[in-house]
Amino acid sequence: MSQEDVEIVREALNAWIEVDEGLADPGRLAEFMSPDAVFMGDVLETDIRGLDGFLEWRAGWIAAYDDWSYSAEDVVDAGSGRVVATFHQRGRLRGTESWVEMRYAIEYTVENGLITRGRVYATPEEALKAAGLSE
Predict the structure, then answer these.
(1) CA atoms lying within 13 Å on the CB side of residue 16
(2) How far apart are CA 45 and CA 95, in angstroms?
(3) Distances (CA, A) of 89 to 42, 62, 64, 95, 113
(4) What is the pLDDT of residues 40-97, one digit of tens each?
(5) What are the sequence ranges of the domains in the chain?
(6) What is 2-130's CATH number, 3.10.450.50, 2.60.410.10, 3.30.70.100, 3.30.70.2190?
């Protein structure tokens, strides 16, 4: 089941790219996310519930930038329905020439073929340690 969980997360991340590029409706993401999914973590100001909540939060996050991009660097099985994805984000703050970059990670929980939870970590190292994937 663990490779299947990794593939579900990979497919969900690919769907995000399709949505970002205007090739798919955000509703397509419901194929991968439980309606009552929750995203949490110190990086977030509050828990985010459901796809609509996540889309609203994400729109607010991106609004701070004139140019913004992100990419998944790695997606690994953490066992017991958990998958850790590491990301690189880069953006030019709105109205400035200042660019900011960050690497972060999300530990996803997959149940019955859907993402039910995401814990966001400020660094990939924190996520990998929490998932028991580092020394």
Answers:
(1) 17
(2) 24
(3) 17, 11, 13, 18, 27
(4) 998 888 999 999 998 898 888 889 999 999 999 999 999 999 999 999 999 999 999 9
(5) 2-130
(6) 3.10.450.50
In angstroms, the Cα distances linking 4 to 10, 28, 81, 86, 132 are 10, 19, 9, 18, 20
- Per DSSP, 113 falls in state T
75: β partners: 85
Question: Which 8-state DSSP code applies to residue 23?
Answer: S
21 CB burial (10 A radius; 0-12, 13-18, 19+) = exposed
Radius of gyration of the chain (CA): 15
pLDDT digits (tens, 9 = 90+) for 4-54: 999 999 999 999 888 887 778 888 899 999 999 999 998 888 999 999 998
Structure tokens at 71: 């990419």
pTM given for the model: 0.91
Q: Is 3 exposed, middle or buried (0-12, 13-18, 19+ CB in 10 A)?
A: exposed
